[in-house]
Amino acid sequence: MSLVKSNKLRSNWMNGGLTRKFSLDDFFNDDFFTEERNLPAMNVKEHEDDFEIEFAVPGFSKDDFEVSIEDDLLYVSAQKSMEDIEDEDDYTRKEFSYSSFYKTFQIPKSVDPSKEVKAKYDNGILRLQLFKDEKVMNNQRKKIDIA
User: Where is the SHSP domain (predicted)?
Assistant: First the structure.
């Protein structure tokens, strides 16, 4: 018995995939950017005293965002108001997304919930700064001797 390596892309092309890829009807009706894929790209940096979270969210204004903390959860959302979006009939396809997103994070225990979270929106990047708890930062791992 021999094993044959399968190429999944090949089977799609063989089953009419080639004609579907170049069909204009499918091109204009394809909803590639579903809501799940519309979550913004995100970076998280850990520094000695804080965490910095960056979201790539161009096209919004700072008033479109809501950032809050409840218990050990960080909530970040944005909603573009419909009156800000111009409705023009000249488009064949319109993919610029100004809709909304909502993301929830469990914050690490090292974040101090009593310290204010700093938020800044500049050039399409939302930056959040969460400060660490000094008590947690000073707790070092202790080695336990085994008798």
Answer: 33-147
